[in-house]
Design brief:
- It is a single chain.
- The protein contains nine helices and seven strands; from the N terminus they run E-H-E-H-E-H-E-H-E-H-E-H-E-H-H-H.
- With 236 residues, the chain is α/β, with parallel strands linked by helices.
- The protein has a domain at 2-103 and 161-212: 3-Layer(aba) Sandwich (Rossmann fold).
- The chain has a seven-stranded parallel β-sheet with strand order 3-2-4-1-5-6-7, with helices on both faces.
- Helix 5 (112-127) links the parallel strand 5 and strand 6 (132-136).
- The two termini are 18 Å apart.
């Protein structure tokens, strides 16, 4: 199971909207079964999912103290992708989410405040040696500040080549538990999400293959030299 986390210490960056959209698009593209995991006490993703009529993606609400155990349970149930939404803060709890993730997505709006706020998340990702990427979100079409923001972010890490633009259909779709792909398939917003998922999925698979290759040498060591932990399964 791949684990994808959306994190940012800046409120209003679009984490919840992106989490829901990417999870739905992953399911639509055949990468499922997908499960959404809400670790934000505000529960915005939970409220959106409760309004949703479609049976997929699945949903799990948890907290950081149970996260590792719950992810093991979801993995045992056969889920192929977990998409985690996090609260807008930089805490030890967020560091725990980053530590169990295969890829960190940092949504960033093209504004000075958002650019400055991204630094805290980058530091946590670096500290745990986790791959991350920025996604420029809520951009104004053809605005110079959008390209300036991408250039500034690229000095600190990978910037997704797909920019999500500010359109009211993102917000209106979320009202009743849907996404732009379901409200207006083939529209510009839907195309953006589809392209973004393809890029994210490619990065996830490349990271996974790299990790497997690196772990081969670890698995070859005598058991006395390897750490480990027991996994327990909980009946859902």
């Amino acid at each position: 199971m791949r684990v994808l986390a959306f994190t940012s210490q800046k409120g209003g960056s679009g984490k919840t909207t992106l989490s829901g959209h990417i999870a739905v698009q992953a399911e639509l593209s055949g990468a499922g079964p997908v499960v959404l995991v809400d670790t934000d006490p505000q529960g915005s993703l939970t409220e959106w999912w409760n309004e949703r009529e479609a049976p997929t993606p699945a949903f799990a609400q948890t907290n950081v103290s149970r996260l590792l155990t719950d992810l093991d349970e979801l993995r045992a149930q056969g889920f192929k992708l977990a998409v985690i939404d996090t609260p807008p803060a930089i805490t030890l709890a967020i560091q725990s989410v980053i530590a169990v993730s295969d890829l960190i997505i940092i949504p960033t709006r093209p504004s000075p405040h958002d650019l400055r706020a991204a630094g805290g998340t980058v530091e946590l990702a670096d500290r745990t040696d986790k791959p991350f990427m920025f996604v420029v979100n809520g951009a104004t079409p053809r605005a110079r500040i959008t390209s300036d923001a991408a250039i500034a972010l690229s000095q600190h890490g990978t910037v997704a080549p797909i920019t999500l633009h500010h359109r009211t259909e993102y917000a209106s779709a979320m009202i009743d538990g849907r996404t732009v792909m379901e409200v207006n398939p083939g529209g510009k917003s839907a195309d953006e999400v589809e392209d973004l998922w393809e890029y994210i999925n490619d990065r996830l698979e490349k990271n996974f293959r790299r990790t497997v290759f690196q772990n081969q040498s670890v698995q070859a060591k005598p058991s006395s030299q390897r750490g480990g932990f027991g996994r327990r399964q909980i009946q859902a």
